[in-house]
Model the fold of this input.
Amino acid sequence: MEIRTLTKVDEFRRVFELEQAIWGYESREDTVPVMMLLVSTKIGGFVIGAFDEGQLVGFAYALPGIRDGKAFLWSHMLGVVSEHRGTGLGWRLKVEQRRLAMASGLDLIAWTYDPLQAPNAQLNFAKLGTIAREYHPDAYPGSTSALHAGTPTDRLIAEWWLRSDRVAERLDAAGRYGAIRSEGQGARSTEAVPVNTVREGGRWLAPDGHDLSVQAPRLAVTIPAGFTEMQQCDLPLAQAWRSATRDIFTTCLARGYEVVDFVLDRPNGRGTYVLALAAEPEAFRSTPAATPAIGRRAGADGRGRPSDPPRGCS
Done:
């Protein structure tokens, strides 16, 4: 596998084609045009491609931004073709993105992702060491992607503080073991107090209520695995999950909690977020002493790596 930065128009055309293939957009309005990819690389952004025997099979696109007078990188798209998902390629693209950003003198990369996509949450928190302090309801209204069909495109903003000990530790663990080991994940969430309850609903878990009055240094929020398939096969259940998690995240983040971890439990079809009050030890939080929020506290842009396509509704 060859991973390198892209600089030529012909390469950006291949990225443009891959955007449509991965997200399945019905309209080209949702894609990033070739010339925009080119311009981004001229002003401090990066387009990174992954090639398997000369075939483009994944890419990461980021452009520069400024918030509160400080420069950072906004990672707008990370996509991997279905045949290469689950191989760690998305993680490798992010590691290269971090290397390039740090070489440019930047401390932060940020992006949005769907909080109901468990594989993306595992990548962001368990393997990369991000935190999240903002929730944006329906960040991409009117998206024509089949991956977004049926439910509002709510998003968390992942903040990746590149030079923090937290990030270095997660990257080291993921690099050595290929994934964060399940026993390590469980140990990180044992002291978290549950906010919501779930029930077995057949193929997927169903929400069974939540208590927004819970007070504890660390909170746990459970979500189902397989949300993309759920949207395709049981839209009312997917909508119920979107409504419940929107209520939970907007309320908890407004109360001063941050999303700091995620535990994926594939055998039981679920994942658990860990939320912590911002007063947690500095070593576990983002490194810079004063870390401004990327936007509003609750409620930007950028797209997370899409989950595997539906296997069917049978």
Notes: Helices lie at 9-23, 34-42, 89-103, 118-127, 165-177, 182-189, 227-233, 235-254. Confidence is low (pLDDT under 50) at residues 179-187, 280-293, 295-312. The chain has eight helices and 13 strands. The radius of gyration is 19 Å.
